Structures are given as structure tokens and as C-alpha cells.
């Protein structure tokens, strides 16, 4: 249907009966006007864009037309219309400034001319001359006249699907220069918005004179309507618009022409940064270019309108680019008058990568000195740390936004700091056997030796919530492994994180690598950080299962190391020791219920029901004030049972647990595989054969026999510290310490060897002899 509408002949608007409301505004000069008094300040941060009420969406010619310039991009346009309609139906006031009439008209007229020539040649000259047909140069105003009606017919059909009325408005400079016409335009637009109608605005290219070069923007208070970029900017200021979204065929503004070496997308552009930009050529269609867009954007920004330039042609993002922008996501280039006090997250990442390479080149002893220094600072500055932590705790308690488990994780104590310091000193010793360790050595051929050595991964991004003790732990592991580190903590621990990061940088500075670890304190959304796939090599989430799942979903181009849930099981077998069972169950659930390695489901062998063992376990849980949820089978055995569990796949993170009954060890294993999260699972039994079968069959990162699930921890395993517990099946698994933050590279040393030397006609033969590697051998 849309294709048929796009190719139909234009009808006079005065005779059309539809829900498109035509509005004519005659004008004919290339005039200038004076900027009115700004209606207010633009938004300072992307996160504030959610508050935008009145929005202009500017569609460039490259967005509206197909790549082959042989028609309109119907699918792309339909997607944009859908997003505009959705925002309109949310109660926002949407306006569209559209290009495409000239390009659409050019295509239609070209088709008509070719068709006409084809008919004439067929009648008078024969078929053999069809290949010589040429299309004359088409005059732009005629193209606009021919294309405008078809373009509006298409918008009408698309918006009708969402029960939204549209109105066409054609303008030129005179409509803004002439005071009476300007008031008429302003009044008309306000009335349309009041009636919940989406105005579709375009320059009246059928009557305007050709544009004068470099006349679109002159000074800071004068603007003339040369193209739809300047029109959108002028309209935004005139209508006191909150947000102008300019969609083009590039991702945004680059510091040099896109596609050139080292061209970088600019996340935030500030007035005064123009000198740092090198502009390329204009788009393939239309009369604008990036320089015109930037000038128009800055003019609108000064008038109080926030501006974003983004890509409206990328099929990966077109379906949600407008809504993503309004939601505050990092899309395109955001124009802001407020420059942050510190570096951007992109700059922080570059600084960390540069300093991280220096960190990796230090001697193992030097990296150990940095970690020991940090351990000393944790004890020396404990009062400052605890004072900052008290501020965070008081604020969290006052606001009441955190659950009790999260508040428990937020809290620091002298004992925690001392334990941290001990773990760091332990890590400092083990760090001497990390970067540059030779894992394998092979004599490939005579005088050609190959080594496989350990190297840092690169730049790590660790996102954590509530637990400030995570910061020094992860920092020490990054130092030991020679990795650069970007830290993003929750705002609930901002005071504690700030002092801990300062101490970390103080320790790093003893060897001149303070920038290797950066704390992101800007308003970066987690999803935006996960898109830095060109800058970050590994993401490690530390927090709730919801946080981990969100990161795993958002980080499409960056590997994520972690677990989504900590649904840990303790299975009490029929041959279990009562004393061991009580100790393991109590410690696994009650030692630290908020931890990811705490027991969430207790599996009981059916033979233990109505025995002293079962009664004592229930009494223990009640004494410890653990709320019990009954599994379906367990509930069926009881006359008056506790509340039945809603899901057997639940991580409570508190003094709560599920109890379920199984018939055998094999059934316990099957239950764990079905409802567990592959984190940590425990069997309590005196039967060695049963225990070994359980240890072999359970496919979890940690599997224990007669030991608390709380032992699943890097410090308790002797790793010194951990960045988290991974339930993945590749790379690191279980508590991830120093080894999990290293990868390898291959080093080949030869004497001018070539592959041709080993061909059938060559003089050399492969040996592939393994060379023994002495323990502690380093490259």
C-alpha cells in the first residue's frame, strides 16, 4: 500500500479529504531575523532528556530516501513514524521537520521522463536506440513540487495506523522574518499541538530561491533558512522546544570525517569545540552537511533547546533510535553547554589503558609493592574510610531505598578492613608469579623456538553495587595481573568508594601508574558503559542477579564474566551425621545470608522425615529466625505446612530458604541441575561412595562434601582476593582470582625463518619438541 501511495500522482491539497491538515504559509525571501530571548536552559545531561515534553525530529534526505536513491526508505520511515507516534501517545508534543520532497520528486520525474523517452523512441526510432536515453538535469523546485504530495501521502498513511492526525506546513525565511507571518506560524503550530496533531514541516522548495553559500548561519543571533537543519533549529527556538533530534546517515559528530583513520565519535559536544573538528563532505543527497548541522545545533542550543545528532539509517538501531535518545541512552552526539569537571568515561578508559600498559611492564616485585602499600593504607586510614561509610549508611537508611541485605553489604567495619588488608598482602606474594610466566616452550625447528606466556587481558570494567569492599579487592587483582581497570560503583556507596579509590591511586602513584585504575563518577548508565566494545575487553558484574542479567543482555560485544544468580543447595543425605548437618546448614544459611554463596534451598532425603535429624534441623532454622518456604513435595507431607514456595529457582538473599524432599542422591542432583544456578552445591553424608558420585555428577562451579557453601570464596581458597564467582564454562570458573584475569600470547624467536623453508622443496623440517619449563620461569 505504501509503495502505491508513494508513486501516485499529486493531488491539490485543497481537494483532499483526509486526516492530513494542510497549512499554507506563503513566503519568498532569503531574509535574516533576530534571536528572541532564550526560553530557558537546555538539559545538562542525557539522563534529563526523559523530561523532554516538546520534541522536534529532523529527518535528513539520506534518512528518508533509499541508499540507491530510487525511492523512499519505506521500512525505515515506518519505524521512525512508529517511534514518533509512541512518544506522541505518551503525552509529548512531537513535530517532524522532513526532507525528501526534492529527492522523491526527482525520482518520480526521472521515471516519467525515462518512460516518455522510451515510448517516443519505440514509436519513432526503434528499440535499438533505447540504450542511448539520457535524463536531463532536473530543476530542484520542480522536483519539490512533484514530490511533496507523495511524501505527505506516505506520512498520512503511516500515522493513520496509530490514529494520529498530521498537518503539512511549508515555510521559507519570510515566515520567520515578517513579524505578522511569524506570529501566524507560531499560532498555527501551537493550535495543532493543542489538538494533538503532529505537524510535518518542510521548506517550501518549490518557490524558494537557490541557497546562498555560507549564508545559513551568521553570528550568534542571526540565522537564515537555507536547509532543513537551519529550519529545524529556528523552529525549535521559536516553539521553545525541549529537544531537537537531527537524524542523518552517520552515527553522530566525529572529530574527523567518518571512515578516516582514528576518527572518533564525539559523545558530548560543547560550544567552543568547533576548532577541534575536521568536516568531511555533505551527505549523498540533500543540500546540508555536518558543518551545517553543527552550526544549527549550536544556535538552537544557545536558544535553550537540547540537541542530539544521531544515525537514522543504521538498521541495527533505527527501530529504537528516537526512543533510546529520549530515554537518555548514549546515542549519537549530545550538545551540551555544561562541561563536566572531570574527564569523560571514554577519556578515562584511554588513560587507564595507557597507564595499564606501563603497569603490566613493571617487575612483579613492583606490582607487589603497590598492593602492600594499599593494604597498609586500608589500616592506616581506617577512620577516614569508616567515617565515609557511615555517611553512606545514614543516607541509605534515611532514604529507605535499599533492602536489608544490600544495607548489610554496604556496611564496613574494622574487622572487614583488617581482613581485606590480610587478603591483599597474601595476593601481593602470589602476584610475583603472574604476568610473563612461561606456560609452554616448544622447539619448532632448529633455531626456531616458541613460547606461550601469560599476559593481562587489557581493560577491565567492574560494575558493582552496595559492596565498597569490592573496590580494593578488585583493584589489587587488577594490579597483580597488570590490567587496567574501570570501576563503576553504586551511588549508595559513593562516599566510601571515593576514599577507597583515592587510596588506591595513592598506592599506584609510588610507581607512576595512578591512572591505571579509574572510578567512573559521571552519570553513565550501565547500558552505555556496556557499549564501549572498542575500549573495554572484559566486564565483571558484582551485585544482584538482576544487575548481572541486565549487563549480560546489554554487553553484546564484550564478554561478561560472572553469574546471574547464587541459588546454592545443601543436600542432607540419609547417611548424614547429625552434627555435621546442623553445622553445615547453619553456617551455609546464617553466616551471611546476603552473600551469593549462601544456601537458598535445603534438600532433605525422604528417609530423614519424622526423624530426630529432621526435627533438629527445623528447630535450628527456627531458632535462627529463618523463614521456611515449603517445596511442593515437602508441602504434601505436612498437614500444616509453611507457605509453599512460589518458585524453586529463588535467590532470597536473606534469612529465608526453601526446603524440598528428594528420594535419593540422584534425584538431588537432578533437582540441582534443573533449579540451580551452577554456583555452589553441597552434600552432607558419611557415605564416601555417595559423596564421590555427587562431586562428580553435579555440574557447578563449586561442589563440596561436608563443608559449608560459604567456603566458595577467593580468599578462603587462598587466592588472596576475587573479582567474583563465575558460573561460565569457558575461561575462568568458580572464584576468579589472579589466574582468571590473565590470558596468553605466543612468542616466536627465529633467525629469518620462512614457511617456504619447510615446503617439500625446502631445506628444513619441523621438530615440534617440547622443552621443559622450570618452575617459576618468566619471559
UniProtKB/TrEMBL annotation:
InterPro entries assigned: AceGlu_kinase-like_sf, Ald_DH/histidinol_DH, Ald_DH_C, Ald_DH_N, Aldehyde_DH_dom, Asp/Glu/Uridylate_kinase, G-glutamylP_reductase_CS, G5K_ProBA
Question: Which PROSITE patterns does the UniProt record give?
Answer: GLUTAMATE_5_KINASE, PROA
In terms of one coarse class, where is the protein primarily found? mitochondrion
Which EC number(s) does UniProt give? Answer: 2.7.2.11, 1.2.1.41
Q: Which Gene3D superfamilies match?
A: Acetylglutamate kinase-like (3.40.1160.10), Aldehyde Dehydrogenase, Chain A, domain 1 (3.40.605.10), Aldehyde Dehydrogenase, Chain A, domain 2 (3.40.309.10)
Domain Aldehyde dehydrogenase: start-end pairs = 344-622
Q: Which reaction does it catalyse?
A: L-glutamate + ATP = L-glutamyl 5-phosphate + ADP; L-glutamate 5-semialdehyde + phosphate + NADP(+) = L-glutamyl 5-phosphate + NADPH + H(+)
Q: Can you tell me where the transmembrane regions are? A: none
User: What GO CC terms are in its UniProt record?
Assistant: mitochondrial matrix
Instruction: Report if keyword Kinase is assigned.
Output: yes
Write out the pathway annotation from the protein's UniProt entry: Amino-acid biosynthesis; L-proline biosynthesis; L-glutamate 5-semialdehyde from L-glutamate: step 2/2; Amino-acid biosynthesis; L-proline biosynthesis; L-glutamate 5-semialdehyde from L-glutamate: step 1/2
Q: Which family does it belong to?
A: In the N-terminal section; belongs to the glutamate 5-kinase family. In the C-terminal section; belongs to the gamma-glutamyl phosphate reductase family.
Name of the protein in question? Delta-1-pyrroline-5-carboxylate synthase
Amino acid at each position: 500500500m505504501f509503495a502505491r501511495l508513494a508513486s501516485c500522482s499529486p493531488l491539490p491539497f485543497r481537494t483532499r479529504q483526509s486526516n492530513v491538515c494542510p497549512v499554507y504559509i506563503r513566503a519568498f525571501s532569503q531574509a535574516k531575523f533576530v534571536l528572541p530571548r532564550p526560553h530557558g536552559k537546555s538539559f545538562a545531561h542525557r539522563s534529563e532528556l526523559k523530561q523532554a515534553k516538546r520534541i522536534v525530529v529532523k529527518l535528513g534526505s539520506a534518512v528518508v530516501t533509499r541508499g540507491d536513491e530510487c525511492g523512499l526508505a519505506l521500512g525505515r520511515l515506518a519505524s521512525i513514524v512508529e517511534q514518533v507516534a509512541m512518544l506522541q501517545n505518551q503525552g509529548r508534543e512531537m513535530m517532524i521537520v522532513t526532507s525528501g520532497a526534492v529527492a522523491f520528486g526527482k525520482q518520480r520525474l526521472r521515471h516519467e521522463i525515462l518512460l516518455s523517452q522510451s515510448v517516443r523512441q519505440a514509436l519513432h526510432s526503434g528499440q535499438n536506440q533505447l540504450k542511448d536515453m539520457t535524463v536531463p538535469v532536473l530543476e530542484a523546485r520542480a522536483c519539490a513540487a512533484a514530490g511533496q504530495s507523495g511524501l505527505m501521502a506516505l506520512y498520512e498513511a503511516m500515522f493513520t495506523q496509530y490514529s494520529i492526525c498530521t498537518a503539512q506546513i511549508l515555510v521559507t525565511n519570510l515566515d520567520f522574518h515578517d513579524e505578522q507571518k511569524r506570529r501566524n506560524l507560531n499560532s498555527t503550530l501551537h493550535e495543532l499541538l493543542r489538538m494533538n496533531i503532529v505537524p510535518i514541516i518542510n521548506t517550501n522548495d518549490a518557490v524558494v530561491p537557490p541557497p546562498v553559500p555560507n549564508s545559513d548561519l551568521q553570528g550568534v543571533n542571526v540565522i537564515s533558512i537555507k536547509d532543513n537543519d537551519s529550519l529545524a533549529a529556528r523552529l525549535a527556538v521559536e516553539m521553545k522546544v525541549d529537544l531537537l533530534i537531527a537524524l542523518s546517515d552517520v552515527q553522530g559528530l566525529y572529530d574527523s570525517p567518518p571512515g578516516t583513520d582514528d576518527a572518533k565519535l564525539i559523545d558530548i559536544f560543547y560550544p567552543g569545540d568547533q576548532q577541534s573538528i575536521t568536516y568531511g563532505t555533505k551527505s549523498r543527497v540533500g543540500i546540508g552537511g555536518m558543518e551545517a548541522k553543527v552550526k544549527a545545533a549550536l544556535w538552537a542550543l544557545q536558544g535553550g533547546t537540547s540537541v542530539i545528532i544521531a544515525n537514522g539509517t543504521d538498521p541495527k538501531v533505527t527501530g529504537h533510535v528516537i526512543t533510546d535518545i529520549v530515554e537518555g541512552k548514549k546515542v549519537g552526539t549530545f550538545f551540551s553547554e555544561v562541561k563536566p569537571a572531570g574527564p569523560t568515561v571514554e577519556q578515562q578508559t584511554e588513560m587507564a589503558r595507557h597507564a595499564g600498559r606501563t603497569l603490566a611492564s613493571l617487575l612483579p616485585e613492583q606490582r607487589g609493592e603497590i598492593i602492600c602499600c594499599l593494604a597498609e593504607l586500608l589500616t592506616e586510614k581506617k577512620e577516614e574510610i569508616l567515617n565515609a561509610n557511615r555517611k553512606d549508611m545514614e543516607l541509605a537508611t534515611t532514604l529507605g531505598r535499599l533492602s536489608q541485605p544490600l544495607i548489610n553489604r554496604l556496611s564496613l567495619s574494622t574487622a572487614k578492613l583488617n581482613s581485606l588488608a590480610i587478603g591483599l598482602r597474601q595476593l601481593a606474594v602470589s602476584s610475583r608469579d603472574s604476568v610473563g610466566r612461561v606456560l609452554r616452550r616448544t622447539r619448532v625447528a632448529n633455531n626456531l623456538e616458541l613460547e606461550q606466556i601469560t599476559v593481562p587481558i587489557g581493560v577491565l570494567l567492574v560494575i558493582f553495587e552496595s559492596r565498597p569492599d569490592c573496590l580494593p579487592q578488585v583493584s589489587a587483582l587488577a594490579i597483580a595481573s597488570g590490567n587496567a581497570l574501570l570501576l563503576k560503583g553504586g551511588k549508595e556507596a559513593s562516599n566510601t568508594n571515593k576514599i577507597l579509590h583515592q587510596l588506591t591511586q595513592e598506592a599506584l602513584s609510588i610507581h607512576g601508574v595512578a591512572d591505571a585504575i579509574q572510578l567512573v563518577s559521571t552519570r553513565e548508565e550501565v547500558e552505555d558503559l556496556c557499549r564501549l566494545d572498542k575500549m573495554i575487553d572484559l566486564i565483571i558484574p558484582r551485585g544482584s542477579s538482576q544487575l548481572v542479567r541486565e549487563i549480560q543482555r546489554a554487553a553484546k560485544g564484550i564478554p561478561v564474566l560472572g553469574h546471574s544468580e547464587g541459588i546454592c543447595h545443601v543436600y542432607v543425605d540419609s547417611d548424614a551425621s547429625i552434627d555435621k548437618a546442623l553445622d553445615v546448614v547453619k553456617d551455609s544459611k546464617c553466616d551471611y545470608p546476603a552473600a551469593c554463596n549462601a544456601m537458598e534451598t535445603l534438600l532433605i532425603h525422604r528417609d530423614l522425615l519424622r526423624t530426630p535429624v529432621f526435627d533438629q534441623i527445623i528447630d535450628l532454622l527456627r531458632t535462627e529466625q529463618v523463614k521456611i518456604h515449603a517445596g511442593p513435595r515437602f508441602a504434601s507431607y505436612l498437614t500444616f505446612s509453611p507457605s509453599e514456595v512460589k518458585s524453586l529457582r529463588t535467590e532470597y538473599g536473606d534469612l529465608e530458604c526453601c526446603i524440598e524432599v528428594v528420594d535419593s542422591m540422584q534425584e538431588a542432583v537432578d533437582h540441582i541441575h534443573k533449579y540451580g544456578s551452577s554456583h555452589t552445591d553441597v552434600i552432607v553424608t558419611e557415605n564416601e561412595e555417595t559423596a564421590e558420585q555427587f562431586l562428580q555428577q553435579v555440574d557447578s562451579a563449586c561442589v563440596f562434601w561436608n563443608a559449608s557453601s560459604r567456603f566458595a570464596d577467593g580468599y578462603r581458597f587462598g587466592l588472596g582476593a576475587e573479582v567474583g564467582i563465575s558460573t561460565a564454562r569457558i575461561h575462568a570458573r568458580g572464584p576468579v582470582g589472579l589466574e582468571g584475569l590473565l590470558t596468553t600470547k605466543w612468542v616466536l624467536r627465529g633467525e629469518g625463518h620462512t614457511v617456504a623453508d619447510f615446503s617439500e622443496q625446502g631445506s628444513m623440517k619441523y621438530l615440534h619438541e617440547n622443552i621443559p619449563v622450570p618452575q617459576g620461569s618468566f619471559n
